[in-house]
Amino acid sequence: MKHITISEVGPRDGLQSVASILSTEGKLAWIDAEYVAGVREIEVGSFVSAKLLPQMADTAAVVEGARCHKELVIAVLVPNARGCEAALEAGAHKISIPLSLSETHSLKNVRRNHPQMLEEIAACQALVDQVPGAARPDFEVGLSTAFGCTIEGAVEEAFVIDMAARVLDLGVAEVGLSDTTGMGNPAQLERLVTGIWRRCGEPRLTGVHLHNTRGQGLANALRAVELGITTLDSSLGGLGGCPFAPGASGNIVTEDLVFMLDSMGYSTGIDLPALLRARHEVAQLLPTEEWFGFTAAAGLPKHFHGTTFKEAS
Ligand code: ZN
Q1: From the CA of 23, how far away is ligand 1's center (Å)?
Q2: 98: CA distance to ligand 1 center in Å?
Q3: Against a cut of 0.90, is the pTM above it?
Q4: Please, which contacts does 118-122 make with residues 24 or more away whose CB atoms are closer than 8 Å?
Q5: Nearest alpha carbon to residue 28 among 7, 59, 71, 2
Q6: How far apart are CA 51 and CA 252, in angstroms?
Q7: How far is the CA of 253 from the centre of ligand 1 (A)?
Q8: Of 8, 98, 235, 249, which one has the fewest beta carbons inside 10 Å?
């Protein structure tokens, strides 16, 4: 049975784009509930300026608190080398930095143009390389607005592939593809994934970050796993989006994604009934936020037994 890693991004992508500020205890309760359900990779926060995103001010404490879950890959987002230093100090297992392919979006999001971002990426890689082997976290560059930009419009596919190659030439192990604005479609996803694979090699791109802004999220996810992508980002209840891409809201819904993969016979290691309980618990912590997803609304079919459920340890 083919395994797909579901990387839960709600505590970062979700929380950074909603008005509610969840306490450190609340975030740890969220992480705990999903860990119990079998989720083994969670993006728990980002090391950004607390002035810009007060929701993320406690990321170091959240990383520390999440370390009790022995099998959990604790992922964080950083906007620059300073954030990367903080992430290393906190002991994150996986560090991602977004590189927006739309330069206008990049300037708005992190106030840096492309040459400046490539410098930041190289500086992050140098910091990561200083960590001794066994303790060294994975470092990845997320190619954001890769499917289109709210401000610039179309993003040239050849440019996406060129930038992937430039980033990987800096010594970065892997890039990810992000549909930050939810403009992508399955044919475009296939062209981008196979284009980067042909140019740079399949091991250099194994994960995608999809949004459901125009209802294409699961269609894109399906195309991705059929092609051979093995990590998918999603958010519990579809919480979140991008505050700097107006109109972009909602990651793909973790519960619906697990339902699709499970039903098709992919292994996710996630117990869907437990995940739905986690959703219920987290929704109570964020009572004013909107929660998305069809599986939670409709309930599980009577005959659904989850092909991949294994007892959470
Ligand atoms: Zn996102």
Answers
A1: 21
A2: 10
A3: yes
A4: 118/166, 118/167, 118/170, 120/80, 120/81, 121/97, 121/167, 121/170, 121/172, 122/170, 122/171
A5: 59
A6: 28
A7: 11
A8: 249
Q: Which domains does the chain have, with CATH numbers?
A: 5-312 (3.20.20.70)
Average pLDDT for runs of 10 along the chain of length 313: 96 91 97 98 95 93 98 97 97 97 91 95 98 95 95 94 98 97 96 98 98 92 98 92 52 96 95 97 93 92 68 40
Active site residues: 242
The answer to whether the CB of 16 falls within 8 A of the CB of 240 is yes
